[in-house]
Amino acid sequence: MSLLVRGARIVTANDDYVADVFAQQETITTIGRDLTVHADVVLEGADLLLLPGGVDPHVHLDFPFGGTKTSDSVKSGTVAAAYGGTTTVVNFAQQLAGESLQSTLERALANADGQAAVDYGYHLIVTGLNGQTLPDLNSVGADGVTSVKLFMAYPGTVMVDDGTMFQILERTGEIGTLCCVHAENGDVIEVLIRRALAAGHTAPSWHARTRPELAESEATHRAILLAEMANAPIYFVHLSCEQALAEVTVARDRGRPVFAETCPHYLFLDDSVYDEAGGFDVAKFVLTPPLRAARHQDHLWRGLRNDDISVVSTDHCPFCLTNQKSAGRGDFSKIPNGGPGVEHRLPLLYGRGVVPGHLTLRRMVDAFSSAPARLFGLFPRKGTIAVGSDADLVLFDPTARQRLSAESHHMNVDYSLYEGMEVAGVVRSVVSRGQLVVKEGRYVGAAGHGQYQRRGPSGDL
Ligand code: URP
Ligand code: ZN
Ligand code: ZN
Known about the structure:
Layout: E1 2-11, E2 16-24, E3 27-32, E4 41-44, E5 49-52, E6 54-56, E7 64-65, E8 68-69, H1 74-83, E9 86-94, H2 101-112, E10 119-125, H3 133-142, E11 147-151, H4 162-175, E12 178-182, H5 186-198, H6 205-209, H7 213-229, E13 234-236, H8 242-253, E14 258-262, H9 264-268, H10 296-306, E15 311-312, H11 345-354, H12 361-375, E16 393-403, E17 422-432, E18 435-439, E19 442-443
Parallel strand pairs: 1-4, 1-5, 6-9, 9-10, 10-11, 11-12, 12-13, 13-14, 14-15
Antiparallel strand pairs: 1-2, 2-3, 5-16, 7-8, 16-17, 17-18, 18-19
Helix pairs in contact: 3-4, 4-7, 7-8
This protein binds N-(aminocarbonyl)-beta-alanine and zinc ion (ZN) (2 copies).
């Protein structure tokens, strides 16, 4: 099996040039002008961008939350990812109470077996320490899980206390595993939620009112210092606001190995959606941290340009409005937190990020693909277009336009965060390890094509 992409404008984090790309089996073997090779599949790249397949390091597929589970499974969510030009996702395997991390990983791998349309890895969510947990971090690392996730929010379910976090950070720092953190002060938020409910404030907009920016920046500050005491690198997921970014920037300026991602919803949506006049539909935007005032967006763009924010992930965590979010009618705290997004990261970043000049095209490719591949131990197999890299490729039409809508998207969820938004840029074809998985906008892949990726140590440490 061989594949040739002819005459596309190849854009990576470092290069921007026109050439042909030839792949044999799963791997790129030649890049050059006017290649005279026979290929089983030929894609014409004229007038199109050829980008490395996206790496989305923050997706929740088949993920348990709030008594339910995300509406996208590994199977449906990875098809949606493919449609959006994302060829690798890093999903979450969540430790049950008292469970060994090895069993957590085995459960997740068994669940994904034969299901995925694109390649995938796992972060391990550590919810508690037992005698085995710290040594287990070494063994799951050897199995390709070189990142963990800790929650400083959601007390009573997944939140860990500072002592637990410190011990885990000590071990991850020692063994070169990257510790990802959801930074919000969960205890304070819990008080605010209880107080709001007691005062009769039950509408979904109160989700945002009980999760202030300071709860995020306080936790960000604390986590940075815990990581420093533990001599460990740290990565902040879904950073949403100016103050939290300021904490990251100060730490990076001090030379600390502190990294952050933000998500499209913080760049393109704001807290004006939390209007009680919207009724229960506001629950669509109950995601965590909540959307912030529009003024934060300029700070996030600047963070991305300066590399204080390395990555744009989606935090794809979909729950249907009608039969899942509806659990929180009459009590906003019972609305499962999260929103869909895995399919639209690229057109949003291009159409609403590159076109208006917030990011250069190469920096967009970095945040979409190369930086997450590097940080999460997948580079240069993933995250670039180079001889020897996996043939994970996206042919992207920068001139076509599309309207984002639940009626046309492929995520298994009954609403879009961006309903009716028009964006420039359309994914035409997607190649995953040398196989066409999307051809001219139509999925042509197969469940089980996607393979588990054993990740190495982070390339940015
Ligand atoms: O709202 C979100 N982000 N839900 C998923 C769980 C988490 O906090 O990552
Ligand atoms: Zn989170
Ligand atoms: Zn998340």
